[in-house]
Design goal:
The structure holds 3 protein chains of 3 kinds.
Chain A (H helix, E strand, L loop, with lengths): L2 E6 L11 E7 L2 E8 L7 H5 L4 H8 L7 H16 L5 H30 L2 H22 L8 E2 L2 E2 L5 H27 L1 H7 L7 H7 L4 H4 L7 H4 L20 H24 L17 E9 L2 E9 L5 E7 L1 H6 L2 H4 L3 E2 L3 H7 L4 H5 L1
Antiparallel strand pairs in A: 1-2, 2-3, 3-9, 4-5, 6-7, 7-8
Chain B lengths: L8 H17 L2 E6 L5 H7 L14 E2 L8 E5 L2 E2 H13 L5 E5 L1 H5 L9 E3 L9 E3 L6 H14 L2
Parallel strand pairs in B: 1-2, 1-3, 3-5, 5-7
Antiparallel strand pairs in B: 4-6
Chain C lengths: L1 H20 L6 E5 L3 E5 L5 H12 L3 E9 L4 E8 L3 E8 L5 E3 L9 H11 L2 E3 L33
Classes of the chains: A alpha+beta, B alpha/beta, C alpha/beta.
């Protein structure tokens, strides 16, 4: 059979981001693949050297629209360590509350996109309808649905009133049965399983060699979660489980993400019940003393790491961002080996690509 | 069928009015992210979901440029994206309109001055409607699309 | 507090093993926030030290490789995670921006090394670079304003 090359160009219906693939196929099977990223490279690391720390919080929020809060959390955490600031516990709890709400919204978004790529539009509509509940909570707290601008260097700029408290708990009570219903569909529905079982299998050995992070790693048996292993406050005072599965295929990744959503709902309830009193932020100096810091956090897609070096002025000398999608992209050529064309969409969306994060 | 040049102007004029009515009542959109952070993209995808539901306005999100009437651009234009954006615009059949969605595609947004950024979409394509916001809310996108449809009446 | 003690104790062991294995080389250690220890070494020692860490201490998770133009040379930082952070820090002089690649030991280092190569002009011997990753296709022919965007003198074309 002769080989043909199918380009899946930067504009394609699979994902909303530009990513170019070139698949060499023999009949219905993909033999080789190559990819090109860099359509969304905005040069944020260079831009950050020309802006002050306060302006950089605004800039790093826009590295990615879906996981924007976790980027600013990691950045502010790093700068606060350089300034040797103690963020008040109430501020830390509110930061974590938004982190967990963002995790729920990101996984719901992903579930809808994955279902759409499989052809199961019903789950897309149900998941995104229930995602509106989470976006409403975030809008009530911060004023924005997708971009919250809650973090400042020294804490958070919002506070929780008793009405917010009751409203959030009530909305979480509405959300939880919907997530369990989706879990039931994924576990039991034969058509969903037929399209995701044994697709894109990655072994534990491959995960370790490629240093994969996040739900993709946890679906293949690697038990790593920055919230538990490098606990940044307040996660050192919270109790939660980290779901791990061992099958390593697209179905296992779906299960891990839905189970993480269930855990996040429990974490939100814990954060609200144990919320300490007090101020939510402290005042930070404009000039940061010279030093360097490595700051890590657990984004919905995995470990995000920031390296910040300051030279004593009010602008950083170097900020390095490594997002989890860049690490997970390297597994794609392995996964796209010897599969049929129909499974390409399942594999591409199973890794939960956020090319805007990867390109920066 | 052009009413000015056709042999039966009345029939041509009637056909022309029906075609214009159909264009306004069912504009199909194509979305391309030329360098943005995905914030505006997920608000756009929100339009297809039960809460905002633009299908009641006849709007469908298409996969191919050859089926689309309106090109919705989000994000600033990066150097690598520039040629692809032009090629997508050329592949769309006339009449076509371009909508710049979000602050980044209006002017470059928060990334102005970057070494890989050319600016907003109007550096590359003729823009018919600007929708502001960072990210722009789904209500704002619907408002912008309705205003565009009134403009093309 | 016990995490900090465990970290210091484990790092003492690593430091002692390194001094035994490479008695003629100089290493220095600095603790850094938030949970990291920086080990400063010479560029040609990076690959042997990584091999030793992988073999004796089961360190396999490379978080990222940072390239940093400090004005005195280009610093390379290899951030590892193994229960706590270990960062290997090495300074490359401007006239010899080259270091052996880690992709033979850790295939996941490929994207990070390609990024440092593109943004700062560091050569990783043995690394496969099939083309630009983040920068546009016509960047090397001078389409952009600077050749290496993260260099300090990036305002002039170099």
């Amino acid at each position: 059979m002769s080989k043909i090359t199918v380009p899946i160009g930067p504009q394609h219906p699979l994902l909303k981001e530009p990513l170019a693939f070139s698949l060499t196929m023999e009949g219905e099977h993909v033999i080789e693949s190559s990819m090109r990223i860099g359509y969304v490279h905005r040069g944020i690391e260079r831009l950050s050297q020309e802006r002050t720390y306060v302006q950089n919080v605004h800039l790093f929020e826009r590295v990615c629209g879906i996981c924007s809060h976790v980027h600013t959390t990691t950045f502010c955490q790093g700068v606060e360590a350089l300034l040797e600031l103690e963020v008040p516990p109430r501020g830390l709890y509110l930061r974590a509350l938004l982190c967990e709400l963002e995790r729920i919204h990101s996984h719901m978004l992903w579930l809808g996109v994955q279902a759409r790529n499989i052809g199961f539009d019903t789950i897309f509509m149900y998941a995104w309808r229930d995602r509106e509940i989470v976006l409403d909570i975030m809008e009530n707290l911060s004023g924005g649905r997708v971009s919250h601008a809650v973090n400042i260097i020294g804490g958070v700029r919002i506070d929780l009133t008793p009405e917010h408290h009751d409203m959030i708990l009530k909305q979480l009570d509405i959300l939880e049965p919907q997530i369990e219903a989706l879990l039931g569909v994924v576990e039991n529905e034969r058509s969903f399983q037929a399209r995701t079982r044994n697709i894109g299998v990655l072994s534990l050995e491959q995960i370790r060699r490629y240093c994969v992070v996040g739900p993709v790693a946890r679906a293949s048996g690697l038990d790593m979660d920055i919230r538990r292993d490098a606990p940044y406050p307040p996660y050192d005072q919270l109790r939660f489980r980290v779901p791990v599965r061992y099958e390593g295929d697209a179905w296992a990744r779906t299960m891990v993400r839905i189970l993480e959503m269930v855990e996040s709902v429990h974490l939100c309830r814990q954060l609200l019940t144990d919320l300490p009193d007090g101020p939510t932020s402290v005042r930070a100096k404009r000039r940061v003393p010279p030093g360097e810091v490595v700051s890590r956090a657990e984004a919905p897609r995995g470990e995000v790491i920031y390296y910040i070096r300051s030279d004593g002025s009010d602008k950083p000398a170097r900020v390095k961002v490594r997002t989890p999608t860049l690490t997970n992209l390297i597994t794609l050529p392995d996964q796209l080996q010897n599969i049929s064309m129909a499974d390409v969409s399942v594999i591409l969306s199973g890794v939960d690509l956020c090319i805007a994060c990867a390109d920066r | 069928m052009n009413p000015q040049t056709s042999s039966s102007p009345l029939l041509a004029s009637l056909t022309h009015r029906i075609v214009q009515w159909a264009r306004r009542k069912s504009p199909w959109i194509l979305h391309y992210n030329s360098g943005g952070c995905n914030g505006c993209d997920i608000e756009l995808l929100d339009l297809l979901t039960p809460r905002y539901d633009v299908e009641r306005l006849g709007i469908l999100k298409e996969a191919s440029p050859r089926h689309a009437d309106i090109l919705l651009c989000s994000g600033p234009v990066t150097r690598q994206s520039r040629d692809r954006l032009l090629r997508i615009y050329e592949q769309m059949p006339a009449p076509k309109w371009v909508v710049a969605m979000g602050s980044c595609s209006c002017s470059g947004g928060v990334f102005q001055g970057g070494y890989n950024i050319l600016g907003g979409v109007d550096q590359v394509l003729p823009v018919d409607m600007y929708i502001f916001g960072c990210p722009c809310r789904p209500e704002a996108i619907i408002d912008g699309l309705i205003r565009l449809l009134e403009k093309i009446k | 507090m016990s995490r900090l003690l465990t970290q210091i104790y484990l790092f003492e062991e690593i430091f002692a093993t390194l001094q035994l294995a490479f008695p003629n080389e100089e290493f220095s250690v600095q603790g850094k926030p938030i949970d990291d220890t920086f080990l400063i070494l010479a560029p040609e020692m990076v690959r042997p030290v990584v091999e030793l860490l992988m073999e004796k201490f089961d360190v396999y998770h490379l978080s990222t490789i940072t390239g940093d133009d400090t004005g005195n040379g280009v610093r390379l930082l290899y951030h590892f995670w193994s229960g706590y952070g270990i960062t290997l820090s090495t300074l490359l002089p401007y006239d010899n921006l080259s270091v052996p690649t880690l992709t033979g030991l850790i295939p996941g280092a490929a994207f990070y090394e390609r990024e440092v190569h593109e943004m700062l002009g560091v050569t990783f011997e043995g690394l496969d670079t099939p083309g630009p990753m983040f920068l546009p296709d016509d960047w090397e022919d001078g389409a952009g304003p600077v050749r290496y965007p993260l260099r300090q003198n990036a305002n002039e074309k170099s």
